Amino acid sequence: MSLKDERFPSSAAFDEINKSLNASEADRKDAMKQGNAVFAFTLKNGAGETESWNIDLKNKGAVSKGVGEKPTVTLSLSESDFGALVAGKANAQRLFMSGKLKIKGDVMKATKLDPILKKAQTKAKL
């Protein structure tokens, strides 16, 4: 089942993140050890619609739609900024400092996302 939503083109990255987590048991366990949290993403597209996905690196080691169960940290940003972030064209810290990325919950856990996003970065064609 694809996690991509046509209204949010960059959401294809969630499929790539899920693939990289499921590439091998060792990869998944390593990502869970590094992240050890539930990361929720709420994206807003140009039409003003919002949709959420989550990367569960606490219990399942998988990606799914929705905010997930008790997210440790929630990241809210525009669909285009998310696309730039996973493509390596944007810096999360700069997006946060400029107010384009809003973080609720454990801000320090958000820093643990970088290696997970980098794995998808090489595979996602956005």
From TrEMBL:
Q: Which Pfam families has this protein been placed in?
A: SCP2 (PF02036)
- Superkingdom to which the source organism belongs: Eukaryota
GO CC terms of this entry: cytosol
Give the matching InterPro entries.
Answer: SCP2_sterol-bd_dom, SCP2_sterol-bd_dom_sf
Where does the SCP2 domain start and stop, copy by copy? 19-118
Which PANTHER family does the protein's record reference? SCP2 STEROL-BINDING DOMAIN-CONTAINING PROTEIN 1 (PTHR10094:SF25), STEROL CARRIER PROTEIN 2 SCP-2 FAMILY PROTEIN (PTHR10094)
Protein name, as recorded: Sterol-binding-like protein
